[in-house]
Amino acid sequence: MNEFFISINSFLEALLFFDILFGTVDGVSFPFLVAWLISGGIYLTFLTKFINVRAFTHSFNILRGKYKTIDDEGQISPFAALTTALSATVGLGNIAGVALAVSIGGPGATFWMIVAGFLGMSLKFTEVTLSLQYREFLKDGTIMGGAMEYLSKGLAKKGYVSLGKVLAVVFAFLMIGGAIGGGNIFQVSQAYSAISHEVPYFSENPLVFGFIIATLTGAVIIGGITRISAITERLVPIMVVIYLSASIWILGSFYDKIDDAFVLIFEGAFSTSALYGGMIGALIQGFQRAVFSSEAGLGSSPVAHAPVLTKYPVRQGFVALYEPFIDTVVICTMTALVIIITGVYEPDGVHASLIAAKEGAALTSAAYGTVISWFPTVLSVSIFLFAFSTMISWSYYGERAWVYLFGSKFSIIYKILFLSLSVIATVVNTGIMVDFSFMLMLTMALPNILGLFILSGDVKKQLEDYLVKLKSGELDREAII
Prior knowledge:
Elements: H1 2-16, H2 32-47, H3 51-54, H4 56-63, H5 78-89, H6 92-105, H7 108-133, E1 136-137, E2 143-144, H8 147-157, H9 161-198, H10 200-204, H11 206-221, H12 224-253, H13 255-269, H14 278-294, H15 302-305, H16 313-320, H17 322-342, H18 352-356, H19 360-369, H20 375-406, H21 411-424, H22 430-443, H23 445-472, H24 474-478
Antiparallel strand pairs: 1-2
C-alpha cells in the first residue's frame, strides 16, 4: 500500500510541482502550483479592490440574518453553510499542518500563512460567488454546486464549451481524490497518531480506531447536507472555543515571550539564511500549509455553500470571506505562536522524531502539553472532533463530485469506498499520507484558478451591482425584518 502511494506522489510531483526557479536557489524549490495560487490570490484581491478587508461588517450582518428575503432559494442558512465549510477547513490543517509548516519552514512560515489567509479571502469570495451563480437544483432534491458547475457552465457561456467540460471532469476526479486523501486518510492517520499516544489500546489495535471513526462518520453522511450542516452548526463553535481557550491560556502564561515570537516570525519571513531555505522556504511552507488549512483556491468549500438560502450569489461570497480569516489568520496564527514559544519545532530538539515522521498533530499536542500537562488528553479529543467534522464535510464534497460524474444512484458506492478507506488509513504510513494529501488537494487549484481567472470579470460586475444596491438602500428595503 505504501509503495502505491509513493508512486502516485512521485508522478504528481514531477507533473505539476516542478520548480519554477529551475534550481537557481540552492536547496529550495518553488513549486509551480504554489506560484499559481499566489498569483490567483493577488489578482483577485486587486480586481475586487481588497474586498477581503473592506466587507467584514456587511458579512456579519448577512450572517445574523439581516438580509433575508422572500425570494431566497436553497436548503440551509448562510451560517449553516459557513460552519459546514469551516468544519472541513478548521481541523488538522490548523493543528498538524501549522506544526509541520513551522518545523520545516521555521517561524517565518507563520507570516506567509497570514498573508496567504488574506489572499485566500479574495479567492474564497470569488469561487463561492460563482458556485451560487451556476448552482443546479437536481430532481432528487439536492443542489449541485462548486467548481464542476461554474467550470462547465461558466466557461461554456464564454464560448469555451470543450475546455469547460474537460476542466470540470478533471476537477471532479481530483476532488474525489482530495476527499479520500486529505479529507479522509490524512484526517484519520493524524488523529490516530495523536490519540494512540494517549490511549495505548489503540496503538495496539489501530483498526478498532478506524472502525469507530468510520461508523460515526457513516451515521452522519447518510443524511446528506441537511444532517451534516445540523451537526456542524453545533460542533464547530464548540471545537473552536475549546482550542482557542487553551491557546489563549498558554499565550497568557508566556505573554512576555510573545514579542520575541513575533520577532522570530518577521525575521524568518525575510531571512536569507540557508537554514530552512530562508525566505523562499518559509514562504512556500506558509502558503502550502495555509492552503491545505483554508482550502482557498481549491474549489472545495463552494460545494458546501451551494445549497444556501440566498437571492444574490455575491451575498454568500461575502459570508465566505470569514472562512480563511477564522481558519488561517486567527487559529493558525495562535497555533504557530504556541509552537514557537514552547520551542518544540526545533529540528534537533527532543521532538525531532515527530518532525521527521511528519506527525504534526502529535507535535502540536506536545507543545500544549509542555504548559498544560493534562491538555494533550483534551487535545486528543479535540483532534478526534476536528478530524470527524472534516471528514463529514469532505465526504459531502467528494460525493457531489461523484454524483456529477456518475449520477445520484451510484453515490452509495462512493460512500462505501470513503468509509472503507477510513479504516485502512490507520495502518498506512503517516508521512506518506501527508505528502499524498497535499499533492491531491493542491492539484485541485490548477483547473479551479484557471476558471476563476476567466470568470472573474463576471464576479466583479456582480459585486459592483450589489454594492450599488446596498448603498442606495434597496437591499435594506427588500429584506424581511
